[in-house]
What does this fold into?
Amino acid sequence: MATQAGTASRAPSFGADEVPRAQVVGTGLIGGSVAAALRKTGWHVTGRDAIDAHVQRALQLGCLDAIGTDPDASFWVVAVPAAYLAEEVARALADSEAAGAVVTDTGSVKTPVARDISDPRFVPGHPMAGSEQEGVEGANPDMFAGAVWTLTPTDTTDDEALRACQAVLSGIGSDVVTMTPGRHDALVAVVSHVPHLAAASLMCLADDRALDDAPLLRLAAGGFRDMTRIAAGHPGIWLDICGENRDAIVTVLDELSERLDQVRDVVAGGDREGLRSVLTQARRARTNLPSRYVRPQELLEVRVPIPDRKGQIAAITMLAADCDVNVADIEVAHSPEGAEGVLVLVVARTEAQRFLAALAGQGYHPTTRDLA
It folds into this structure.
């Protein structure tokens, strides 16, 4: 189901005494956690679900303030299975049109829904967080604290909708990264989808071997358990993911197969230096995985004058992602005169110089300011 471009969004704006209102569609593990996280940060959250027992339980657990549809909600999150995602996003956009609300989703594959929905108020998204637990019983208000939440705006996404979505998600502690839908799908095949299939394959290998050697699984120590932990995820979710992101997943599986063949040859040939090289590279890459900073003194404000032209916020936040620069917060200061504004981004001091250089290389004229 597709929807055409409609009313431009207006970013959520709240008075000092006004309680922001959100709507969550789908109250399972992710939807329930989003609802609980928003409630924890002061939002009034209404939820709805195709299965009444799920939304009733979400209310009982304190994830929601109310059940139903809130016509005044300014921020909507659609957290439903992939098979229903485009339909429910389209419905959410229709239900929230009067309020001009921003709508995002939590789908693991972005290209299909980004292709099917072309509304300026829609900001496709994907939180890189989860749990082996199933349903709202496993909902956790802190699930997204420090976790990456990817936003994948399209050519039709309104800049103000993107900025508003970034601000809300940063407000619940997420590390928001912006990129195109296609790039997202190619990258998550490497860091999420294929790792799950690899863990499942290794777990099946061990299970098969255990049929002939019963003590095998009793020998599974911490390393094996850590590596295969994600194999406990619900199979139904992964059927949809592998169907929607088939091409990217197959490409990465081929690359992984080649890597394993190389390691096999190194081990079979007794090539100690070759094996050392592989393990050293892996260790270095693993220890250098980025971590989220939290101390204000480590942050710097980057101010970028931008023309009043569509796509500027998306272009700059995508440039930040290209430079491996985390944007901790974002806002736009509009000029009362002229056709320019100032995009204000908060980044790590250690990352600021390469971001400034990249901005200058693209013709921008950024300045910096201490937060203190």
Q: What stands out?
A: The mean pLDDT is 88. The longest helix spans residues 181-212. The chain has three domains: 21-179, 184-287, 296-369.
